[in-house]
Design a protein that fits this description.
With about 130 residues, this protein is mainly β. The protein contains one helix and eight strands.
C-alpha cells in the first residue's frame, strides 16, 4: 500500500510538468498609497496581450496571480490607476502622471525599455516582483 501511495504522489508531482500548466504570482510594490487599483497586462513573447487583471492595493502593495500558463516567455506591464479612470494618465509630453512598472523592473531613459527586456521564462510555478515608479 505504501508503494502505491508513493507512486501516486510522484505521478501527481510530475503531472504538472507533463501538462505544462504553471502559475505566475506577480507582487507589485512601491505603491505610494492604497487608493485606486493596479491594472496589469500579461503578454506572450509575440507582444500579444494574453490576460489582464485588476487588483486592490493593501499596505502599498498588490498581488496578482495567473494560473494555467504554458511554459514559455512572458512579459508584464502595470500601472497604479489612482483615479479609477481605467487608462494611464499622462501629461502633454506623454510622461506618466501615475505610477507604472514592467516585468524585470525594466526602465528606459525616454520611454519604456524594448519589449525583449521585459521577457522572463516560465518553466515552473514562478513569483516575480515589479516595483512601481512615479
Amino acid at each position: 500500500m505504501k508503494k502505491y501511495l508513493s507512486l501516486i504522489a510522484v505521478l501527481l508531482f510530475f503531472s504538472k510538468f507533463v501538462s505544462g500548466q504553471f502559475s505566475l504570482e506577480i507582487e507589485i510594490t512601491g505603491l505610494k498609497n492604497n487608493t485606486g487599483l493596479v491594472l496589469l497586462q500579461l503578454f506572450d513573447e509575440n507582444e500579444k496581450v494574453i490576460n489582464q487583471a485588476k487588483s486592490e492595493i493593501k499596505e502599498n502593495r498588490s498581488v496578482i496571480v495567473f494560473k494555467d500558463l504554458k511554459p514559455g516567455k512572458y512579459a508584464s506591464r502595470c500601472f497604479h490607476d489612482e483615479n479609477l479612470s481605467g487608462i494611464m494618465e499622462t501629461n502633454g509630453l506623454g510622461i506618466p502622471k501615475e505610477g507604472y512598472g514592467f516585468s524585470n523592473n525594466a526602465s528606459g531613459m525616454f520611454g519604456p525599455m524594448p519589449f525583449k527586456e521585459w521577457l522572463f521564462d516560465i518553466k515552473e510555478d514562478k513569483k516575480i516582483a515589479v516595483k512601481i515608479r512615479y
